[in-house]
Amino acid sequence: MNACDSVHSIASRLAAQQSALLALFCLCNRRRARLSCHDWLRSGYNPNVPKYSIVVPFHNEQESVTGLYDRLKAVMEQVGEPFELVFVDDGSRDATFALLGQIAAVDSRVVVVKLRRNFGQTSALAAGFDHAQGDFIIAMDGDLQHDPAEIPKFVAKLNEGYDIVSGWREKRIDNLWLRRIPSRCANWAMSKLSGVKLHDFGTTYKAYTRELIEDIPLYGEGLHRFIPALASWYGAKICEVPIVNIDREGGTSHYGISRTIRVFFDLITIRFLLKYMMRPLHFFGGIGMAGIGTGSLVALWMVFEKAVRNVNVMDAHGPMMVFGAVMLVAGVQMLALGLLGELQVRHFHEPHSGQPYRVAKVIRSEAGEESEIHG
């Protein structure tokens, strides 16, 4: 091997090592920077990365697929920034996926995600968010009740520095008793419980920054409606813009009065997450101490009745004695549950180190000399 070949070999090895170090750096900092290695490289070298991602979930909406695509394309081309359309087929049984596939075949800006079954709107939106590449993400329904012509309003607010722009159906056309009144009550309760001053939490028509949406996990059914409430915990800047509520042009609505009932259970979940997510012992511990205190008072009363008045407490106060015992046991259990919750929070925030031990000192003899390594 001559000198030139040797130098070339060394240069190749150095280049390989630099690539490996770069990949390791990206891997270690991916979570901190909220940006994958692929996204980092792409954002640095590819000028065609979309600025806006429009995420639309579909479920048996074959009547509106083509019309919505045409309107979205026309509006986004007028915006004048790179964009992509992320269409999610949430287990449709009609021709929705076939139509989406035909659109994706002729327009490279369209991304189609097909789910194996109907997972629900929240999961479909989560899938769309995961496959979106834009810096700003706009979510809307696929039934044409959300007018794509309203998108410039959201874009303007995003450019003003807001993290979430929520649509507000100021003049709703839904059924008064089955939709509007329950929705108004739920929105009022959500605003009071979360401290976020919005008129309409229920609409899917919202815009988000990528950095924010990646911090909020979506799961279950219906949690997407409360993204502004969850985002308030992160200090997000939130505003709303009035939008037009359009009647469906085709298909049937997938929502009824049963959804309103489920929303109230979601309200309890959101309230708990916002107030006690990082301090579960404050919630469970309070209930536990109330139970322990009540049971202790009952027990002291039973001791007084037995010791001072010589009363047969089993005959005279049997039910009360059982009640006190139950309160004591339940209180201890709630307190223990709160402590387990605190352990989970600590585990979540602690850096994960694989060693189940800590070294104080290592003494190793090398070449006749002893060296000490302190841990």
Task: Write up what this structure looks like.
The chain has 375 residues and is of the alpha/beta class. Among the domains are: 38-171 and 196-251, Spore Coat Polysaccharide Biosynthesis Protein SpsA, Chain A, CATH 3.90.550; 280-349. The protein is built from 13 helices and 9 strands. It has helices at 3-33, 37-45, 65-79, 96-106, 121-131, 151-159, 176-194, 210-213, 227-232, 257-276, 280-307, 313-316, 318-349; strands at 52-58, 83-89, 110-114, 136-139, 164-169, 206-209, 238-243, 361-366, 369-374. The strands form 2 sheets. A 7-stranded mixed beta sheet has the order 3-2-1-4-6-5-7, with helices on both faces. The longest helix is centred in the C-terminal third of the chain and has 32 residues, at 318-349. The chain is extended. The two termini are 45 Å apart. The model is unreliable at 20-45 (pLDDT under 50).
